[in-house]
Amino acid sequence: VHRTAADSSRPRPFPPPARARHVGIISSSSASQQASGGQGSQRGPSMWQRAQKRWSALVAAPRSRIALQMRAHVGEDHWKAFVRHAENKWKTQFLRAFDPSTRVLACAGPIQGGPCPCQLSMYAHSITAESQLQYLHLDHTHDLSNVCAVWRQAVPQFPQSWHEDIDGDRLCHMLFGVRATERGEPPCLHFRCGEARGGLYRGRRFCHASSAHFAQAITIDAIIR
Known about the structure:
Radius of gyration: 19 Å
Number of strands: 4
Order of helices and strands: HHHHHHEEHEHHE
Largest sheet: 2 strands, antiparallel
Helix content: 25-40%
Shape: globular
Low-confidence stretches: 1-45
Structural class: mainly alpha
């Protein structure tokens, strides 16, 4: 088969290992083709349902990532008020991030900047979307534990409200913000490629790295009024 220079410059999908050939991570060119109605664009598992699960694991579930760090500190009533606020104001944009108008989800690249070395993207309505999504993490710019630690520092235990003496919108943007705010603050959550459970691509250079968040650490000044 004759190959042109343009062919060699196209992003390549991951070569799936022998025991995981069902994982069809696709290149950006393939995702664009599927989004425009190309071959393989059948609607697959609901990305909305996948997004709901991620939202639950982050905040809504009784033992969510944020609940384990903040529920006991602010008290049960204020915790429930916080979850209601998050559900009413932030949940919809969070869910929509998993099914954008382009129908394509793509790694934003390393937190330090630059393109994704894997050039990873996926078509949200593909029949293989469920297996592909495990390689995309919705990554916080500011480490979640760091944000919660600052929240606990700023708000006394058993406060008058979950946002006593702090900028609640600023805090929630750090926790849930997938798009820029009206105040011009950039998104605080981005999709980044990372290793899936089972480590099928162990050793590959992924963009999601826990140590990278150390340079993005915040202090109490970031959220107090």
